[in-house]
Amino acid sequence: MSVAVRGAASHLAPMLDPQTAADRAQSAIARARAHGADAADAILVADTALSVSVRLGQLEDVGRSEGAELGLRVFVGQRSASVSTSDLSETGLAALAERVVAMARAAPEDRWAGLAPAERLLHGAPPLLDLDDGGEVPPQVLREAALAVEDAARSVAGVSNSEGGSAGYNRAIVALATSHGFAQGYAVTSHGISASVLAGEGAAMQRDHAHHSARHRTMLESPETVGRRAGERAVARLNPVKIDGGAMPVVFDPRVGGSLIGHVLGAISGPSIARGTSFLREHLGHAILPEGLSIIDDPHRPHGLRARPFDGEGLAVSPMALVERGVLQTWLLDSASARQLGLEPTGHASRGLSGPPGVTTGNVHLAGGSGSVAALIEDVERGVLLTELIGQGVNGVTGDYSRGASGFLIEKGEITRPVSGITIAGNLRPMLLSMRAAGDLEHRQGVNVPTIRVDGMTVAGG
């Protein structure tokens, strides 16, 4: 058993609340301005995490981490620099501010860099998203959950071994402040449970897993449900068959179908568009999905795993259709990429502890699916249902797509035998345009999709 405590300033983490964290970020900005910065922003993240893992019914690891870190970005003219620290003392912040301003003076100019437009900042109280259940979870409670999830998985007939069960929680305080009038913070919790087991023996052994995450512990699935799902998935993969390759329908289980939407999100990010490195760079205002499908970004979904009251530059965020009835509506823009493209930021900036903002989304889902999964595949004479994707063979510039995969054979409209070691290939543009979706959408992850069918993909047998 091991116990780890992270962060030189870890004793500060439990003392911080959102307002105190925002005040500390403002203090760092004031020091930077005093040393000659023309503008600055700061993000502070303080978190506490506890996890327990077991294997074969025995406690394997207990890990606890506590930390508080601050990232400070300053501008001197059109020059900027960023640094981060876990020393949040007054002396530490003063030294940090002096150092980062000196770094900025020596940095090259960047005409696109700068804070977000002041008139677009979130003013007033942030939206109430119920992201924090407030409570710590005792190690014994997590240990019991980890044991229960593994026990449930191992009790499934055919399961032969275990890679373990785990349970954990995290609570974080996030605060952002800018030198032109923004200072807000919020708290967020995350709870999770998972199990990974093996079925079969020797070279024929198959592995699978299951997990569930939620903002509130009361919303977490029971250990028995998660564990049983892990065991049943592993057993279902036993005795995979080889298949002949060719062009055929490919059906993406919701476990893996979100990756298709992830490729769209990457392709419509402002930095990719500004660099000209996106296969969708010429398609704003054009159809990229069938007319009945939309991609919705909702950062205000209560309890959402990617919900947030403001973006990484302090801008207000709101639900929006990224793709509406098949037509691409917008790029995902932080302030720098918006300036480069001559557009307005869209509230999609993300912020780490060092470096400039990037681009991210809130809770995303594919809307417009209908009917059952059985109806979606009833006319498939021969195809595959994918439950796992392997590798990163996707070219974001051309849209060329090639991934290793495993799942199940579809024969005469029925899901039949497991398959593994296959390769699927195509191009994302025609794949997206031919997409069909069932009506089994559930909001379980940051990007959620129903079961998706794409016809005419090339499948190479394993």
What does this protein look like?
- This protein has about 450 residues and is α+β, with helices and mostly antiparallel strands.
- It has 9 helices and 19 strands.
- It has helices at about 20-35, 90-105, 140-155, 225-235, 255-265, 270-275, 335-340, 375, 430-435, and strands spanning about 40-55, 60-75, 80-85, 160-180, 185-200, 205-215, 245-250, 295-300, 320-325, 325-330, 350, 360, 365, 380-390, 400-410, 415-425, 435, 445-450, 450-460.
- The strands form 4 sheets. Strands 3-2-1-4-5-6 form a 6-stranded antiparallel beta sheet.
- A hairpin with a 4-residue loop joins strand 4 (about 160-180) and strand 5 (about 185-200).
- The chain is globular.
- The two termini are about 40 Å apart.
- Residues about 1-15 have low confidence and may be disordered.
Question: What is this entry, summarized?
Answer:
The chain is of the alpha+beta class and 462 residues long. Helices cover 22% and strands 36% of the residues.
Can you count the beta strands? 19
Poorly predicted ranges (pLDDT <50, ≥5 residues)? 1-14
Q: How many angstroms does the end-to-end distance come to? A: 41 Å
Residue share in β-strands: 35-45%
Helix residue percentage: 10-25%
Given the helix and strand composition, which structural class is it?
Answer: alpha+beta
Largest sheet: 6 strands, antiparallel
Whole-number mean pLDDT: 94
Spatial extent as radius of gyration: 24 Å
Principal-axes shape call: globular
Order of helices and strands: HEEEHHEEEHEHHEEEHEEEHEEEHEEE
| Count of DSSP H/I helices | 9
Biggest sheet, spatial arrangement of strands: 3-2-1-4-5-6
